[in-house]
Amino acid sequence: MKLGKKIKTLRIARGYTQEELADRCDLSRSFISQLENDQVSPSIDTLERILRVLGSDLKTFFSTDKRQEKIVFKASERVPMYLDEYGIKGYILMDNIEDKSIDPKLIELAPGAETEEEDPHEGDEFGYVISGKLELILDGKVYKVNQGDCFYYCSDRKHKIRNPYEKSVKFLWIDIE
């Protein structure tokens, strides 16, 4: 693949117009157009600047590695997270994946069990209740979440999940960076 075509592919994947890319790189739109059509060659500094804006770098851009991406994650590959003694069973659903922006977990809380309260941190969190019901506590405010419901919140406040009910609850919990 030619340099210009690779840059154009990255630009389109980021949703930038030629004008937007040019503005972000302090270059002219005509230069970006010529570059994408392989009519000009950028200096290394200019290429690094363009790639930084496009979320890449020289090593990745010129890599010929065809990394094998994992698509299916088998139930047998799940990594246990919690001990049964606390009434919490958890499994990391996708392990050994670099640069993932989500971290999905399958959690089961026994009656009366609860997660530790987490301090505010970066990111967002999403959950979907597969069976049972639970309580989501955000900065002390309680939200009741039933089977089939989902929840989503910014992780910038204290939070925890508990099961004050008589039946176990199973839910999908996704940390989003």
TrEMBL record:
Q: Which GO terms describe its molecular function?
A: DNA binding; DNA-binding transcription factor activity
State if Iron is listed as a keyword: no
Q: Which domain of life is it from?
A: Bacteria
Keywords of the record: DNA-binding
Which SMART domains does the record associate with it? HTH_XRE
The record's listing under InterPro entries reads:
Cro/C1-type_HTH, Cupin_2, Lambda_DNA-bd_dom_sf, RmlC-like_jellyroll, RmlC_Cupin_sf, TransReg_Diox_bact_type
Q: Which CDD domains match?
A: cupin_XRE_C (cd02209), HTH_XRE (cd00093)
Q: Name one GO cellular component term.
A: cytosol
Where is each HTH cro/C1-type domain found?
Answer: 7-61
Query: Key word DNA-binding present in the record?
Result: yes
Gene3D superfamilies per the UniProt record, alphabetical = Jelly Rolls (2.60.120.10), lambda repressor-like DNA-binding domains (1.10.260.40)
Q: What is this protein's record name?
A: Transcriptional regulator with XRE-family HTH domain
Protein's organism: Thermosipho japonicus
What broad taxonomic lineage does this protein's source fall under?
A: Bacteria, Thermotogati, Thermotogota, Thermotogae, Thermotogales
